[in-house]
Design brief:
Two copies of one chain form a homodimer.
Chain A (H helix, E strand, L loop, with lengths): L5 H13 L4 H10 L9 H13 L3 E6 L5 E5 L1 H13 L9 H8 L5 H24 L9 H27 L1
Antiparallel strand pairs in A: 1-2
Helix pairs in contact in A: 1-4, 2-3, 6-7
The first copy, chain A, binds a DNA duplex through helix 3.
Chain lengths: ~170, ~170
DNA sequence: GACGTCATGTAATCAGTTACATGATTGA
DNA sequence: TCAATCATGTAACTGATTACATGACGTC
């Protein structure tokens, strides 16, 4: 078993939850429903599907028009997915440019710090707007993650507002 | 200018905010104060400092005992840092294993889903405990980011609790 | 002298992004 | 016929992790 399985798991999860799909379809789903959870472009997805097929986790169900290849999850793939979900302790490596800017904010003078915080706030606001427009509130896959994203966005906006108040008062 | 400056910026920020330091010192600071914002080990930091010195952003101030090299930020380094802070629009690429598990949770049956959520909750609780023990509440650098981290951890725990209630009711 | 911490580095590998490349189909 | 979208891929590069390697200094 590989060390970092996240991309495979995300792909297996989509195939399991939303049925057979092509690499192209999966890339679209990454762009839309998965974007606040994990990211991957088609250049990463296509080769990964080939490797996963070689490992027996997925199989090409059929080849449609325009060379479209429909992948299905195999029983081994389903097993791998379940094992990861129930047994893998998720790592908590954070790498956030926003948090980094917040971390370094005290290096700036008051006026500049306020301007940076306002931009950060606007970013969170935009993110919240995107999540609110997202379907999947009632949808099976992704509804819990969406709720978490919404709450974190709202919390972040509150934090930005209070930080701005603090900066303006000082 | 490079595309991804985050590691450089983090190093410049630490040198600017906490004064001259060795690669070893900087690696320690990454482990302690920066860990909830950005991650980097010494194997990434040492070569990066060499490149940054070549680019004139930092300079070796002195060489101490045991081959210890003390780096200082240069005026060009300070300029690069300020420019990034005030002008760079932070990217919002999220890659969270926890959120991925939450996303895929509906694939599991009720009992398993509850067990996974309990583990996720425990993870957030542990994270909160670490952040609460962290100094830097009053400290210059990192206090805003710490406050954001604390709020997000608390929000995540609330989300986990309500999700658990929801799962148990169903 | 042995152990732990301080202190620096390289090499191999893996994950992820950007740029490049090709061709089919659909609709204006 | 032209443009947009569908659909797949490769190659080069950058960022990050893991494993390996070395040696100095302090203290028990």
């Amino acid at each position: 078993m590989l060390a970092d399985m996240s991309l495979r798991i995300a792909l297996l999860g989509l195939l399991s939850g939303a049925g057979p799909a092509s690499g192209y379809d999966l890339a679209k789903k990454f762009e839309h429903s998965l974007n606040h959870v994990w990211q991957a472009g088609h250049t990463q997805i296509y080769p990964e599907l080939v490797k996963m097929a070689a490992d027996g986790l997925v199989a090409v169900e059929s080849e449609g028009a325009r060379g479209r290849k429909i992948y299905t999850i195999t029983p081994e793939g389903t097993h791998e997915l379940r094992t990861w979900l129930t047994e893998h302790q998720p790592s908590v490596t954070v790498r956030s440019e926003v948090a980094l800017q917040a971390f370094l904010l005290p290096l700036l003078d008051r006026k500049q710090a306020i301007a940076v915080m306002e931009r950060i706030r606007a970013g969170f606001e935009a993110r919240l707007a995107v999540l609110e427009c997202q379907p999947g509130h009632g949808q099976a896959l992704g509804r819990y993650a969406l709720e978490l994203g919404l709450r974190q966005a709202r919390t972040s906006i509150e934090w930005a507002d209070e930080t701005l108040t603090d900066l303006r008062r000082a």
